[in-house]
Amino acid sequence: MVGNQARAAIIQSQQITGLTPEVIAELMAEVGPLWHERRQAALASRPRRRAVGAGAKHKLVFVDRLLATLVHLRHGATHDVLACWFGVDRSTITRAIGEVRPLLAMRGCTIAPGIRLRTLGEVINHLGSSGQTGIIDGTEIRVRRPAVGRKDREKFISGKNKQNAVTSMVVTNADGRLLYCSAAQPRPAVPTSLMPDS
User: What are 109's strand-pairing partners?
Assistant: First the structure.
């Protein structure tokens, strides 16, 4: 796991997470209890052989799960790299990002006091009503290829980069402020009618 000094350095460096320490503290206060509630609900929903609280403790505390997710979203760092950085297994990082990212999406993006955007429709309405320009782009994130026999295995192949990838759509304003990031999806196949003539 990350030491206290390394964690503090990550939080203080806006280049790493893209967020100020104040915003990260706000995310911890808002998203942390939601994560804990979901975790407790998942534990209570299945038969237990041990008492609540027994067993191994988390190697990756919530603040580290949040930071790993923010770094992954900002830089597209692979789960293997983050696992080395945070000193845990790759599967722990994968699980952490899978738990935290939906909570961040539910929270939405605070762009001004009293204005929080949660969906692409809300982003478009905000840009239209405020007369701002939006910039839309897609980004690819490299992933491991799905297991042999999975029916949609070929959907993850990026012909452009010759690697297995998922894509996300990102919307920013003209100043580059992030307003929306879609969920990662398998790269859609390009219809043959849109392919250039050879």
Answer: 117
